[in-house]
Design goal:
- The chain is mainly α and 418 residues long.
- The protein contains 14 helices and no strands.
- The chain has helices spanning 2-51, 58-82, 96-111, 113-121, 127-151, 155-187, 194-215, 218-230, 233-245, 257-295, 300-310, 330-378, 382-396, 400-409.
- Helix 6 runs antiparallel to helix 7 (194-215), helix 6 (155-187) runs antiparallel to helix 10 and helix 6 (155-187) runs parallel beside helix 12.
Length: 418
């Protein structure tokens, strides 16, 4: 029976350590959230600057670039302080290999931004090129949030991370729409793909926000509803119609570049408030869960303390001396069995809830894998691969994840990589 208690204590301590690691990871997520927001603003201002031929918006662009650099410095400082590259692996988080790879990819993308900023300041490059570079960096940072959600072992924290990821992803698509529209208005016209691009981005936003609402904590739902009410959505729809009506060869009023940017920015600022509340609440949620584990009625440490008093002040399971005939006594024996049962039921419930929470993440991973298959075998871009699967799903009346699964299963029969 003492071995059972020792393993129960070790299991509970392991849970606490995982939550402590998760709390440290949530601090990184919060810093990443701020950096993504700053880069989104910089991307929009850079597009306005480039589309105007370098004649306007330079002061705004420079201010946004400085804010991005400051937020990036905080992320890098966190990585330096966290000591997650400890050779002994003592600080490595759960799922560390995947998370560390995501960090490396994000740092690689961030390392390319100074050169991009120098080109933009000199008036070189096109808005689309700048957008792609910023979007690549933001996508790599969002991958960190996705990975944190995917490796979280506590369902309550995982739900918050999934909600945050979907909100940040939807906000990123809204940011891409702001950047694309700003470039179109500032340049006085759109390209042949602009209408499709905008419709695609609008659809993706709504999908992400629907998923966010499915995981949004009840205490935040009223704040989210109020934020939606406060967004300038009517003005946004009016400006969207102007963009969508401006086909190839038709001009757009350049004077609408700033109203468009301001309208989209107001919406993004409301989204940022919700994002900040979620990101800021993650560490508090981890602390609450740790307190629940350490102060709950089924804490095996309480039994150790009770036995320590019974054994004259021993401090741990290994130090306790037991009578082989009646090692604990009937009352404590029943307590250990009760704790074992409670912990087993709790972990089973957590496992089932965690599986449900991760279903949406698994769908994203499935779609990403299928996009990779189409990109390799058919030479499609990532966006074109996604659109092909989405159109197939609509034409066949199937769910997008089901189409993605079929693509993956058919890979052995697809043409070889050229």
């Amino acid at each position: 029976m003492e071995s059972i208690l020792a393993f129960l204590v070790a299991a509970r301590r392991c849970e606490v350590r995982e939550l402590e690691q998760l709390a440290r990871g949530c601090a990184l997520v919060q810093a990443v959230s701020e950096l993504v927001h700053r880069l989104q603003a910089e991307r929009g201002c850079s597009n306005l600057h480039l589309a105007s031929g370098g004649k306007r918006f330079e002061a705004e662009r420079a201010a946004c670039a400085a804010a991005s650099a400051e937020a990036e410095a905080l992320v890098r400082a966190w990585l330096d302080r966290a000591d997650i590259l400890d050779p002994a692996g003592q600080q490595a988080p759960a799922g560390g290999a995947r998370l560390l790879t995501r960090i490396a990819l994000a740092l690689h993308a961030l390392d390319g931004l100074p050169e991009l900023r120098a080109k933009i300041a000199a008036g070189r490059g096109a808005p689309r090129e700048a957008t792609e570079c910023f979007t690549l960096a933001i996508g790599a940072l969002l991958g960190l949030v996705f990975e944190a959600a995917d490796i979280a072992t506590d369902p309550a924290i995982s739900r918050l991370l999934v909600a945050l990821f979907n909100l940040m992803q939807g906000k990123e698509f809204a940011g891409q729409e702001r950047a694309a529209g700003a470039a179109a208005f500032a340049a006085g016209g759109t390209g042949t793909q602009s209408e499709l691009d905008l419709l695609h981005l609008i659809e993706l936003q709504e999908t992400c926000f629907e998923r966010f609402e499915a995981f949004c904590p009840p205490g935040l739902r009223s704040t989210w509803d109020a934020a939606r009410e406060a967004m300038p959505l009517a003005e946004l729809e009016r400006l969207r119609r102007k963009l969508l009506a401006a086909g190839p060869g038709r001009t757009l009023p350049e004077a609408l570049a700033e109203p468009w940017f301001a309208c989209c920015s107001a919406r993004l600022d409301h989204l940022r408030v919700i994002e900040d509340l979620l990101a800021g609440g993650l560490r508090a949620a981890c602390a609450t869960r740790i307190d629940e584990l350490q102060c709950g009625p089924d804490d095996p440490e309480d039994l150790v303390r009770a036995l320590a008093g019974q054994a004259g002040g021993a401090t741990g399971v290994a130090e306790l001396q037991f009578d082989a005939r009646e090692p604990f006594g009937p009352r404590l024996t029943r307590s250990i069995v009760d704790v074992l049962h409670a912990q087993s039921c709790r972990l089973q419930a957590m496992s089932e809830e965690l599986a449900a929470v991760r279903a949406s993440l698994d769908e994203r991973k499935l779609i990403d894998r299928a996009k990779g298959v189409l990109m390799r075998h058919h030479g499609l871009s990532e966006d074109a691969a996604y659109r092909l699967m989405r159109q197939t799903a609509m034409d066949q009346g199937r769910r997008l994840p089901d189409v993605a699964r079929a693509v993956i299963e058919l890979e052995p029969f697809l043409p070889g990589v050229s």
